[in-house]
């Protein structure tokens, strides 16, 4: 067993020290030694690469520790594995990793050994663990695996399990920024460098800032946070400013409901973002960077903190990085919680310790930002792209994408679909491909009615437009936005007026209150929608909604207000029939709006289990003496729907209150 | 010296409380977070401590304390129940779940904490665990979280019962 790590010196001839690596440090880790020739030193590296892959003993178990897998119990699985390995006295390395983005198999584990195919097991429970370990490591049987990463022909049942790369949800992805997610240990700088990490920064420091800007411009990279501004241009503007000091900020305030690709990336491969931010700092001439993390995602902040400390410990942050004369450091800031912080000027106010109030632009932050100094703010996915482009070259990046937008984008598909998850696909992929081929289409017997793209700033696209390609321009003309990349699939069991009202509940609560159109306008729009969903709407309400939406859209100070009417405008555009049904017929066609429906127990299917009566919050359900079955007292019922969800035999149905 | 409900807090105490934090205005948000971690909420004297420490007027600290939703100006329950109001969770039943919780805990409009201060029910923003929708998180007094995925009235009732039993056991 060796204790030597790739980050250590290979022999006395190496001139680097831990915190003062030379300019060839990164390349030397992988293809070295570069400053001297020694077969032994080369072999040391080769052996270490093997160890990283298969563990120091030739067998390795990877357990994902990220928010999504923790929520499904991966910590208990991790402990069970440690215990089982100890009890069985197996020589197996157990390590943590990030998440693949395949939420539907959480919690998963990966078993690998030198002479065995690598196997992934899905939906693992702590109780399953001893059997799984015995099957794989002792009986050499992989038949219970969910997928295999490779075939070696050495294990029993190999032919019964599909290969990961053959399955649609993997094959149709293009893993560019998320390549390391679920593979590497997110807390290990060594593993990041072994997988090509920090090659981008190393190259940038050798070529100089101007060449970096050229390369980023050539790649055509556009901001992945939603607005799509060309990253190279933003960096050039900041570089040209004469005021100093300058700052760079990573926007990790991922607040759109239904979007978690930034969290996944940061929890699974935080060094890529730290490297991207360092490159940004070097390019624009900043010596201080900040990573601003959303309050609800504390693990993401912890992983960033570890990454920053590790990078600092190894001379990849701090003074004279890689002997280039460039000084740079990063501070991780955890937000106290406000959706508006995702707006760049609001975020700067929050970093300064103030209320997160946006301000008028121009001047843009690239000219006057943090403490009135030039500041570049990039989304974390953009920074990860920048680091990868610098390592792999712009040509590789531009191989996929559309004419106007090159490269890939990560999307989270949630809602009523079979395979909830985060997927990275080339820009320009159709919505249908993402929702049906990758995410597996609608759940159960539902039908897809619409997809909501871009969170509270986005819009609803109806099912008949699913063939639209996803890029900035196309989605905008269809009334939605690409936004940060959250796609929520809405089924025929959901009401579109209720969806519009939901988003206004969100945006009106999150409006910072600085400007009137957003603060008051959204509230009035919510009141109208509330009236409609209560069955008290009138025909004029539709015109008032449209007018208000237009006013809020055009006269709000920042993008929160400027885009908040989108969910209303897009549902008015594509789902007018549902609005009309609520207003004219006083009916909610999807049976969602509680004021317009009532519940009924079908006495024939009722099994008298009493669950509905036990759970009714207002005791409106009583037992009918003659039949022994249950019935709802309509006068006392508040139409909350609890009985409907708890009934084990679906004996309760929804009917229109008017009919 | 700063007066507080349970006695007085000396200057040393505030040094301890904010240990490692630079005395700069931009650290106000972090300072308030540390106060809340100790008190469980932000009492006026706690806000004053933070304001004095980082060197901003009380009014500014108060304006920040009221702006961000992670801060609470009133005492909150021992178990803080956070109901995710993200899109996926809303569509799959959390609007119903939160009403259910409020009903069974007897919370009136505008009231978020039960009278015995055992539970608080609050709306929360997306936790990014949409694969488990609808999601409800219970923050426990030791700072750890219980994440309840695919929550429904039945599992919530069981959860409340479990914590009540735990509490009754502790009192004995």
General description of the model:
The complex is a heterodimer of chains A (659) and B (172). Chain A is α/β, with parallel strands linked by helices and 659 residues long. Chain A has 26 helices and 18 strands. Chain A folds into 5 domains: 59-166, Glutaredoxin (3-Layer(aba) Sandwich), CATH 3.40.30; 189-397, Rossmann fold; 408-491, Ubiquitin-like (UB roll), CATH 3.10.20; 496-583, de novo design (two linked rop proteins) (Up-down Bundle); 594-656, Alpha-Beta Plaits (2-Layer Sandwich). In chain A, the strands form 5 sheets. In chain A, strands 2-1-3-4-5 form a 5-stranded mixed sheet, with helices on one face. Chain A has a 5-stranded mixed sheet with strand order 11-10-14-12-13. The longest helix of chain A is centred in the C-terminal third of the chain and has 18 residues, at 516-533. Chain B has 172 residues and is of the alpha+beta class. Chain B has 2 domains: 2-67, Orthogonal Bundle (Arc Repressor Mutant, subunit A); 79-171, Glutaredoxin (3-Layer(aba) Sandwich), CATH 3.40.30.10. Chain B contains 6 helices and 6 strands. Chain B has helices at 11-17, 28-39, 44-54, 58-67, 87-104, 153-171, and strands at 2-4, 7-9, 79-84, 119-124, 136-139, 145-148. In chain B, α2 (28-39) runs antiparallel to α3 (44-54) and α3 (44-54) crosses α4. Chains A and B meet through α3, β10, β14, α19 and α26 of A and α2, α4, α5 and α6 of B.
């Amino acid at each position: 067993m060796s204790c030597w790590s790739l980050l250590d010196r290979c022999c006395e001839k190496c001139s680097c020290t831990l915190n003062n690596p030379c300019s060839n440090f990164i390349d030397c880790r992988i293809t070295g030694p570069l400053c001297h020739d020694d077969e032994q030193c080369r072999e040391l590296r080769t052996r270490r690469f093997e160890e990283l892959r298969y563990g120091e003993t030739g067998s390795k178990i990877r357990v994902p520790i990220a928010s999504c897998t923790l929520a499904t119990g991966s910590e208990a699985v991790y402990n069970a594995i440690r215990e089982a390995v100890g009890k069985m006295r197996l020589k197996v390395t157990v390590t943590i990793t990030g998440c693949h983005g395949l939420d539907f198999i959480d919690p998963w584990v990966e078993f690998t050994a030198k002479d065995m195919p690598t196997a992934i097991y899905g939906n693992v429970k702590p109780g399953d663990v001893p059997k799984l370990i015995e099957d794989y490591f002792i009986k050499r049987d992989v038949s219970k695996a969910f997928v295999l990463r490779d075939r070696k022909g050495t294990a029993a049942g190999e032919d019964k399990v599909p290969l990961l790369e053959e399955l649609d949800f993997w094959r149709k992805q293009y893993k560019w920024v998320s390549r390391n997610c679920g593979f590497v240990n997110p807390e290990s700088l060594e593993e990041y460098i072994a997988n090509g990490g920090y090659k981008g920064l190393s190259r940038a420091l050798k070529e100089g800032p101007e060449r970096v800007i050229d390369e980023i411009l050539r790649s055509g990279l556009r901001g992945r946070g939603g607005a799509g501004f060309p990253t190279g241009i933003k960096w050039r503007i900041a570089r040209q400013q004469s005021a100093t000091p300058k700052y760079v900020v990573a926007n990790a305030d991922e607040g759109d409901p239904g979007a978690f690709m930034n969290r996944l990336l940061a929890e699974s491969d935080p060094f890529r973002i730290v490297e991207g931010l360092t490159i940004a700092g070097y390019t624009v001439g900043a010596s201080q960077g900040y990573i601003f993390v959303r309050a609800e995602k504390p693990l993401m902040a912890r992983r960033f903190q570890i990454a920053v400390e590790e990078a600092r410990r190894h001379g990849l942050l701090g003074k004279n990085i890689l002997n280039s004369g460039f000084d740079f450091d990063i501070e991780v800031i955890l937000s106290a919680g406000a959706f508006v912080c995702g707006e760049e000027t609001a975020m700067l106010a929050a970093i300064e310790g103030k209320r997160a109030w946006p301000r008028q632009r121009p001047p843009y932050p690239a000219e006057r930002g943090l403490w009135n100094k030039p500041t570049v703010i990039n989304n974390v996915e953009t920074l990860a792209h920048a680091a990868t482009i610098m390592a792999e070259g712009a040509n590789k990046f531009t191989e996929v994408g559309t004419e106007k937008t090159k490269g890939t984008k990560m999307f989270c598909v949630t809602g009523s679909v079979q395979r909830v998850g985060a997927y990275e696909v080339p820009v320009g992929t159709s919505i249908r491909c993402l929702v049906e081929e990758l995410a597996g289409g609608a759940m159960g017997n539902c039908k897809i009615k619409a997809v909501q793209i871009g969170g509270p700033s986005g819009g609803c696209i109806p099912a008949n437009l699913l063939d639209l390609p996803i890029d900035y321009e196309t989605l905008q003309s269809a009334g939605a936005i690409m936004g940060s990349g959250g796609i929520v699939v809405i089924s025929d069991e959901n009401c579109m007026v209720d969806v519009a009202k939901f988003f206004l509940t969100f945006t009106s609560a999150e409006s910072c209150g600085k400007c009137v159109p957003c603060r008051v306008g959204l509230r009035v729009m919510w009141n109208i929608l509330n009236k409609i969903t209560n069955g008290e709407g009138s025909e004029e309400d539709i015109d008032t909604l449209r007018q208000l939406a237009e006013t809020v859209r055009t006269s709000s100070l920042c993008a929160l207000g400027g885009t908040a009417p989108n969910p209303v405008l897009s549902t008015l555009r594509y789902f007018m029939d549902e609005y009309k049904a609520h207003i004219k017929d006083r009916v909610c066609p999807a049976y969602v709006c509680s004021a317009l429906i009532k519940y009924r127990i079908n006495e024939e299917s009722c099994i008298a289990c009493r669950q509905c009566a036990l759970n009714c919050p207002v005791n409106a359900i009583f037992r009918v003496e003659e039949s022994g079955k249950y019935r709802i007292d309509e006068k006392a019922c508040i139409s909350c729907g609890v009985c409907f969800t708890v009934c084990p035999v679906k004996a309760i149905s929804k009917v229109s209150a008017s009919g | 010296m700063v007066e507080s409900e349970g006695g007085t807090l000396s200057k040393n105490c505030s040094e301890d409380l904010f240990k490692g934090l630079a005395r700069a205005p931009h650290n106000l948000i972090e300072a308030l977070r540390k106060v809340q971690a100790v008190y469980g909420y932000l009492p006026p004297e706690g806000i004053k401590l933070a304001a004095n420490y980082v060197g901003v007027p009380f009014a500014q600290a108060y304006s920040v304390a009221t702006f961000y939703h992670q801060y609470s100006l009133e005492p909150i329950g021992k178990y803080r129940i956070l109901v995710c109001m993200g899109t996926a969770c809303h569509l799959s039943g959390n609007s119903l779940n939160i009403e259910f919780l409020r009903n069974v805990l007897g919370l009136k409009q505008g009231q978020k904490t039960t009278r015995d201060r055992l539970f608080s029910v609050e709306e929360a923003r997306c936790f990014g665990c949409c694969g488990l929708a609808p999601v409800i998180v219970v923050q426990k007094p030791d700072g750890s979280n219980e994440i309840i995925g695919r929550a429904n009235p039945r599992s919530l009732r069981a959860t409340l019962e479990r914590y009540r039993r735990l509490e009754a056991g502790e009192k004995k």
